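Dear H.,

Thanks for agreeing to be a second pair of eyes. The structure we're designing against is below in token form, covering all 262 positions.
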């Protein structure tokens, strides 16, 4: 079989991403402990293009309501061991990008933590299906390019509602685009196949984990503003965690694991 060129690989991954969900961004949720309060957002959320964003949001919500959320609800009915395996595998596959961001943030301890987890779980843990590192007392943390930009002082920028990729500020949107361009494991056929499995599995796992939160937010009078504000608080907390550089992950109590995207 002829191997895809790198641009073709990126195109295929982008098409798959747009076909599967609007929640993929950082694909997998962090394993967190419910102890941390929401980080306050400095000033009001800056949403100058709100009318346009609301229009895109309506489209995204329709895709979610009729496609992704029903599949995620079905996924939650699968055996726990299967869901845990999917979560572990997709989390492990994302570790190289976490490592890159740890390095870019200048955090040596986090970098060693991530590299150790990836090495142990990929080998002993059978490509990450089993999270051996947790049992060894090496917890997982999340990191992405949006967080790295924030750690180095880049401001949030205006809210951008991206078709099929969801709500976020422009800094995080730029981080998502950059993440698509970075392939730390190369672009061999095997890596592309594993990447596709991780993308689909991670998307479903993330969406399933967010169902309780989004179900509660949809009961509020203005779902758009409620979700937008929760995302802003969640990402503010995530950037603060990056600045602190702790290797033990935290959760902010606005409802989602730090680093989760919507």
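And this is the sequence the design step returned. I haven't edited it by hand at all.
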């Amino acid at each position: 079989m002829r191997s895809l060129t790198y641009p073709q690989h990126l195109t295929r991954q982008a098409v798959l991403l747009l076909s599967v969900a609007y929640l993929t961004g950082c694909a997998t949720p962090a394993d967190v402990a419910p102890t941390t309060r929401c980080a306050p957002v400095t000033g009001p959320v800056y949403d100058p293009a709100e009318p346009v964003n609301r229009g895109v949001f309506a489209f995204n919500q329709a895709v979610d309501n009729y496609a992704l959320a029903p599949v995620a609800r079905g996924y939650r009915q699968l055996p726990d061991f299967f869901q845990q395996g999917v979560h572990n595998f997709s989390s492990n596959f994302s570790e190289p990008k976490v490592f890159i961001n740890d390095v870019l943030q200048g955090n040596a301890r986090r970098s060693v933590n991530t590299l150790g987890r990836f090495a142990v779980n990929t080998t002993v843990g059978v490509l990450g299906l089993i999270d051996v590192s947790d049992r060894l007392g090496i917890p997982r943390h999340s990191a992405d390019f949006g967080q790295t930009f924030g750690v180095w002082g880049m401001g949030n920028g205006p809210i951008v509602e991206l078709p099929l990729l969801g709500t976020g500020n422009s800094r995080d949107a730029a981080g998502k685009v950059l993440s698509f361009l970075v392939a730390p494991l190369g672009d061999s056929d095997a890596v592309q196949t594993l990447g596709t499995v991780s993308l689909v599995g991670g998307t479903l796992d993330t969406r399933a984990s967010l169902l309780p939160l989004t179900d509660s937010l949809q009961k509020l009078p203005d779902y758009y503003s409620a979700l937008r504000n929760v995302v802003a608080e969640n990402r503010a907390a995530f950037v603060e965690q990056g600045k602190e550089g702790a290797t033990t992950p935290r959760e902010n109590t606005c409802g989602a694991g730090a680093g989760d995207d919507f």
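Two observations from my side: Residues 52-244 form one domain. The longest helix spans residues 189-217.

Warmly,
E.
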